[in-house]
Amino acid sequence: MKTRNRTLWVISFLLFLCWALADATADAAETRQKITLKGGSPWGESHRNSIALAYFAKRLEDLSRGDLTMKIFYAGSIVKGPTEIDSIRNGIVDVGTVTLPYHAGSIPESVRIAVMVPFVSDFDSWLWLAKNTDWFRGFLTKLNLQPLYYAHAELVFTMVNPIEDLMNPSLKGRKIRAPGLGFKEVINYLGGDTVTMPSAEAPAALATGLAQGLYTTLDTWEAEGLQNVCPYVYILHTPFTTPHCMSIAGYKKLPEWAKKIVDQASDDTARHM
After folding, report:
1. Which of 63-77, 135-149, 194-208 has the least mean pLDDT?
2. Of 17, 54, 60, 67, which one has the greatest count of Cβ atoms within 10 A?
3. Roughly how many angstroms between the first and final C-alpha of the chain, as a whole number?
4. What is the arithmetic mean of pLDDT over 28-51?
């Protein structure tokens, strides 16, 4: 009886050692190769989209214990607003922003207009839409983009001179910088004209009188340092969201352990932002 018990104990111990060795070998093989991704933002580090990228990068590093990291290039150094989609799909960056109004002809008009309408009154609803409907993901996957998370911001009018009657607002006689469809229609409805230009050109346009205001996000107004030249800010209480994406091909190339880290970091960033 004792011999039998001893034999069973030895077999159990050997089986445990085999399992532990196999598990350790799998972990070692899975985490052997360190990966560094590139991220790109058209904005400076203080902009909310850049803050979201930085938070995502930190989560990647923390969750992977340093095996998956991301270097971020800010302020349009390698990615401009109109080149966001091509920069991701062509591998110039692995992770980048897709600012919807910038991409006429690529992003459906219905989406670019809808995101300007305050039919959703809180940021959490955008997260629900992204997770539970195809409406805010399908157009990205058709562009061979893998949406990761969404960074939210507050839309504002910022003016060189104040709006005189807030109960009956008019922008007649003013030329307002608007980045594209959706923005443009709102300005026109209020009687104003629009001019389209990259965010980086807005300070000079305001200072020289080419534009008399911006329809933008509060983050852009702060990041571009427009407080002195364009001091009147009207918060519209309308959420605006920007998808941050990888290419589908780039995501699929990641090993399984890295995909799990990217997915978890994406969920964490979505909740944080």
Report:
1. 194-208
2. 60
3. 64
4. 85
The single residue listed with the structure tokens 């809808």 is 114
Rounded to the nearest 10 degrees, what angle do helices 256-272 and 123-132 cross at?
A: 150
Q: Give the whole-angstrom CA distance, residue 205 versus residue 226.
A: 11
**Would the pTM count as exceeding 0.85?**
no
Asked if the model's pLDDT at residue 28 lies above 60, the reply is: no
Q: Are residues 135 and 247 in the same domain?
A: yes
Residue whose C-alpha is closest to residue 273's, from 102, 97, 132, 134: 97
Quote the tokens at residue 91.
Answer: 């591998």
The answer on pLDDT for 16 being more than 60 is: no
Q: Quick one: 135 and 57 in the same domain?
A: yes
Predicted local confidence at residue 135, as pLDDT: 78
- In the chain the beta strands, taken as DSSP E runs, fall at 35-40, 68-73, 95-97, 145-159, 175-177, 193-195, 213-217, 232-247
As a whole number of angstroms, the distance between CA 207 and CA 209 comes to 6
Domain carrying residue 197 = 156-240
